[in-house]
Design goal:
The chain has 282 residues and is an alpha/beta fold. 25% of the residues lie in helices and 26% in strands. The protein is globular, with a radius of gyration of 24 Å. The mean pLDDT is 94.
Length: 282
């Protein structure tokens, strides 16, 4: 056994080695995570001023909607968007106020809109933005406030609409699930980030190599499901799915998605960026 001479201050870090006086611990306008909490504690800060979580309401509309688990009969459709929207919006950092299914009735919708505007920073109405005879949400937006836009250059979910009512953003989110996902990501998420004081929402993005050719629609972006995996050499590869051919359930089950570039054709072997929804599990 080797003898070691112990000296004064041996293996003792000097004052200031952990954190220095005047050191910037965290920049402003940053979403605090687990390691940030440790940094603040190291600086002996018990409290810091923050933006409160935005309150976001989500209202599913449609006489045809039923809750998951109820008997599905002819002409009915299961409300799958509420659960997805709640989970996604909470992952964005907001607090969700989920409203029960509301039938297509303009008076009921107007009364519920008053409650949502009173108690929330952002209002989301699911359904009622297209061309159906009972699509009342869009008409209500134009009547109650300033309709900023209707129909977008990003699909699915192109009939999305945004209005300013009483100084608050109100969005009509289209009903089809994959369109709902798209609008939640490209439109709702940045608004929530802005309400939280963030310049840009954080995303998990990876670069993967395409396994097949992909044609993009002309004139607008289009959301495709993306299944990312590793090839035999450990390189990331991706297969893209169009919900019109693969189905919405299969696209929702993928571990990521991409937005096409209008009119651009991707070739086999092209490297593209994929936004991940969940870990890559081969």
């Amino acid at each position: 056994m080797e003898d070691i001479t112990v000296t004064k201050n041996m293996n003792v870090q000097p004052c200031g080695s952990l954190v220095r006086k005047g050191q910037l611990l965290l920049p402003a306008f940053r979403q605090i995570n687990a390691t940030d909490l440790a940094i603040l504690a190291i600086g002996n800060l018990a409290t810091v001023p923050v933006f409160r979580k935005p309150h976001v309401s989500f209202l599913p509309t449609g006489t045809e909607l039923i809750q998951p688990g109820e008997t599905l009969s002819r002409g009915k459709n299961v409300d799958s968007n509420s659960l997805m929207a709640k989970a996604m919006i909470e992952s964005f950092g907001a607090q969700v106020n989920l409203f029960p299914i509301t039938a297509d009735d303009p008076d009921d919708l107007n009364n519920i809109l008053n409650i949502m505007l009173r108690d929330n920073d952002l209002v989301l109405i699911n359904g009622g933005s297209s061309k159906g005879s009972e699509d009342y949400a869009l008409r209500l937006l134009g009547k109650r406030g300033v309709l900023l836009f209707h129909w977008t250059q990003c699909g699915p979910g192109r009939p999305a609409a945004l209005a300013n009512i009483d100084g608050k953003p109100v969005i009509v989110v289209p009903g089809p699930p994959y369109g709902c996902l798209n609008v939640l990501h490209w439109l709702v998420r940045p608004i929530i980030a802005s309400l939280m004081g963030l310049k840009k929402p954080f995303e998990y993005v990876v670069t993967a190599r395409l396994t097949e050719e992909v044609d993009a629609p002309t004139g607008f972006k289009f959301l495709l499901g993306a299944q990312v995996s590793h090839d035999d050499d450990g390189e990331l590869i991706v297969k893209l799915l169009n919900f019109k051919r693969a189905g919405q359930a299969n696209c929702l089950a993928t571990n990521g998605f991409v937005h096409t570039i209008p009119g651009k054709k991707w070739q086999i072997g092209d490297l593209i960026e994929v936004t991940l929804l969940r870990p890559i599990d081969d």
